[in-house]
Amino acid sequence: MVTNKKPDKAMPEVIPSDSVGLVEPKAIWFDQPLALNCGEVLDGFQLMIETYGQLNESHSNAILICHALSGHHHAAGYHSMEERKPGWWDNCIGPGKPIDTNRFFVVALNNLGGCHGSTGPTSENPKTGKAYGPDFPVVTVSDWVSSQAMLADYLGIGQWAAVVGGSLGGMQALQWSITYPERLRHAVIIASAARLSAQNIAFNEVARQAIMSDEQFLNGRYLEENTIPRKGLGLARMVGHITYLSDDSMGAKFGREMKNDSLSYDYNVDFQIESYLRYQGESFSEMFDANTYLLMTRALDYFDPAAEFGDSLPKALGNATAKFFLASFSTDWRFSPERSREIVDALMEADRCVTYLEVDAPQGHDAFLMDIPRYTRGLAAYMNRVAEDCQ
Amino acid sequence: MTTRGDLDIIRKWVAPTSRVLDLACGDGQLLYELQKEKQVTGYGLEINSQDIEACIDKGVNVVEQNLDRGLGNFKTGSFDTVIMTQALQVMHFPHLVLEEMLRVGRQCIVTFPNFGHWRCRVHLAANGRMPVSKYMPYTWYDTPNIHFCTFRDFEALCREKNYRVLNRMVVDQSYQNGVFANVWPNLMGEVAIYHLTMAEGES
Question: How close B165 comes to chain A (CA, Å)?
């Protein structure tokens, strides 16, 4: 769940030495049909990807990066010297960084149903010649994993050294370990959950209602009318954004700081936090597709790998052969440490290899994207093991 | 606080290929050796971040979990052996921790400093002050060791709780199980190592 960094953060004039540098996305078209959980079949689809580092001779050093709700394929480096900020997980991916591109071949993609180049609601529906819009099928975490397996085949990767993700990305790593046990050696699952709680689903529903009740939503066919549900999507993002931060981090960043010297006694912006949230909402609504937002929140809601196994997560993980690394953050109330512990406990019950960090951090859910020394060191130590297993 | 000595003894008491839970596992040395030499599987629980990183480096499964939160997340009988070295005395309720160890594991191994060792007695008798030694390097106000016991105190607890002692060993500073420690364990043993099971349970 990527946050927009401060708008004033400028691209350095020289690319830092621990950056993957200038990178170029690549679109890959898949001709094979993909049967989705909802019953529909996509005859073909496109995935937008970026790769960093070199695939070794034995193809054993590939890492798949799965993105969260609003993420995409641009995980590290810069698209141009003019780009204001690097990819969304640049903190973690690069030469000498925890996911070390000197050692790993890193693959990041935009998931199916996304709005950054992979086939999704904004793509042209071959049957109508117009954007899919609301007709794009609801895809699930499982569907994503199936499409990612096709991507692995395309890239000649029989087995990932690791599948890595935070939040919704962590759910994909977990699903990988269950669906394709033999196709990954490690699953790295950060600030994630094996299923959403009622509170999580409730927040998603508020976000969806905000979008769908916008007059410009037009039953999802807004693109055909050359408009977007700006207000609704912005509101959805504002609600989401609150859940990604902690009370502490918001307090430290904004407190009760005022925008103006005196109270306005109306309902315009008085407090800095209001101004910040409005900015976040507005800028997000310009760059993200509302139908994709609906789809991503639904994928979150539906994720529940234990459901097919009599609600037993240990049973669901019974066939997993990957080794697991999990981390959670103390002030994350969107995917609290308890949610990660459920996975860890299930893994221990299933006698799987697992390492778990519970990091004391004030940043809330967004902590997983940040450079928090204890977290970075722990992840780096684990990824070092992953690299040693590649030989 | 653990050094090689008590770990060497514990290693002998752990059955090959068994499933082990190591409470307060430190840098993971014991689990690492047990994995390597006895193909043991299992997990270490630890909260110290440097120790956790050392475990990760060794390839030991380490889970960040505070023991004061209990072992409620582990099923009854889910491990062959639950181990805790040199940490019993820092627990808030050592007797409940022991109870939990023997619920989760069919057997448990604990080590603790013997407060009845002659040096402690002499120190307290001669100086009238709390003993400070290699194994108990803290002063009374900043020590994490809040529940000291002697060898005999521990034996009494085992009888009361109906724990069967499978093995016991007291060792001196150099982890030698010397003649004196055998004859007068409560006086000569500095570190006590116990291997327990429930009296009515399987061993």
Answer: 28
